[in-house]
Design a protein that fits this description.
mainly alpha
């Protein structure tokens, strides 16, 4: 049902998600990890709808909360770093993307079989090295074209 709403009524679904977020903030407080989860989900939703600036704001805020509320190498932080890296990469913000991917790669290297990381996230994180290589090549080509 919700998937149908997302596709058929994207603006309505976005407004509903934002209203749920406000309610959660009122009940749980603004620094609760559940708020970060809602912000992350809302960020992914608005990104899918094409609003990259709003997505960046939501995803950044989610990471800030998780970094304050959770241990430094928690899988939610890993996922958040990946999401921000991918958003920045797709937005042409390659230096920022590389930073996020590098941080995610460092966490993953210390926890290769992190029990909290889902199979999808493990597959996703395995792509980090490839994304960093792509970013480095893109930056190198960009620098060479300026000469």
């Amino acid at each position: 049902m919700l998937t149908k709403c997302l596709i058929t009524y994207p603006r309505w679904y976005r407004n509903l998600s934002a209203a749920v977020l406000v309610t959660k903030q009122t009940v749980l407080g603004e620094q609760h990890p559940a708020i970060a989860t809602s912000l992350n989900n809302l960020g992914l939703l608005v990104w899918k709808q094409g609003d990259r600036p709003a997505a960046l704001a939501y995803l950044t805020r989610a990471l800030e909360i998780w970094e304050t509320a959770l241990p430094a190498e928690h899988p939610d932080i890993l996922e958040s770093l990946w999401n921000l890296g991918e958003l920045c990469r797709r937005s042409g913000r390659l230096a920022e993307a590389e930073g996020y991917f590098a941080r995610a790669r460092d966490i993953k290297a210390r926890h290769p079989e992190y029990p909290g990381v889902s199979q999808g996230n493990r597959m996703m994180i395995s792509q980090i090295g490839n994304n960093i290589k792509t970013i480095n090549i893109s930056m190198l080509l960009s620098n060479n074209s300026e000469r």
